Amino acid sequence: MNAARDGKRETDLREWRTGEGKVLGAKIPPPRGGHLSAAIPPGLESDDPARGPEISDRFWTLPNTISLGRIALIPVLVATILGWKDPTLALWLLGVLVVSDWLDGKIARLWNMRSTWGERLDPIADRILVAVVPVTFAIAGYIPLWVVVVLLARDALLVATLPVYRRRGLEPEVTYLGKAATFALFWSLPLLLAGHAGVAGAEALKVVGEACLYWGMGLYAWSGSIYLWQARRIAVAIRPHRVGSADGTRPHSV
């Protein structure tokens, strides 16, 4: 029985170190640099020495450089669509953006280049892309304006829930439904752009792009409601951390 309990504790501790531990569906973030500290969740303490860091604090890594390049390329895409009015070039640029979004995460996992900066930069780049590109498409007349309103409203609601997690030492967990919604929306944009670029089969691509767009919108709204429900559960079930304890030290994370 002791062996089983120790094995369970080691599994929980490993999940916490790698950011895979969860409380009510929210992630328990590992400490910066992957080192064990006083922030170990209660009950997960172990006599074993800490393993090597799995998530570094390095900023200049190849995945982070790709994420920064993706952010820098977004204004160029906007200028290509609205200023130069060249949907063909915009299609190529958008393709680079979509591929880079997949590439940085793949490199980080395969080459063990995960970093705390990367975990911030990648979603920031995604959020900018998801916010700016639909607005640009709406201005250009590629998609209806209401799509942009729904997208921005959903993201604004999710941003409003972040303090619920942060005050409890947690991070929101991205669901597979949310990933599916983002995937559908990401693919709808190049398909719609290809339809307006006049490539072979443009009309068919436009129809498929619109289908992906509306399917992604439905999933996006659905996943947003799940995130809100999860934030409410956490707000009710877990009390926020105090800024500090009586002796001036920081309290344990959940």
Descriptive overview:
With 254 residues, the chain is an all-alpha fold. It folds into 2 domains: 55 residues, no CATH class; 176 residues, Four Helix Bundle (Hemerythrin (Met), subunit A). The chain has a two-stranded antiparallel ribbon. Helix 3 runs antiparallel to helix 6 and helix 4 runs antiparallel to helix 5. The longest helix has 36 residues. The protein starts with a helix and ends in a 17-residue tail after the last helix. The C terminus is likely disordered.
Domain tally = 2
Q: Give the C-level CATH assignment of the largest domain.
A: Mainly Alpha
The H-and-E topology, N to C, reads as HEEHHHHHH
| Head-to-tail CA distance between termini | 26 Å
| CATH architecture name of the largest domain | Up-down Bundle
Structural class: mainly alpha
CATH superfamily of the largest domain: CDP-alcohol phosphotransferase transmembrane (TM) domain
Biggest sheet: strand arrangement: 1-2
Q: Report the principal-axis shape.
A: globular
Number of strands: 2
- Helical content class: 55-70%
What does the average pLDDT come to?
Answer: 79
Q: Give the count of helical stretches.
A: 7
Task: Examine the coordinates and then state which fold CATH places here, giving the name of the CATH topology of the largest domain.
Answer: Four Helix Bundle (Hemerythrin (Met), subunit A)
Estimate the strand proportion: under 5%
| Low-confidence residue ranges | 32-53, 243-254
The profile of the biggest β sheet is:
2 strands, antiparallel
Q: What is Rg?
A: 21 Å
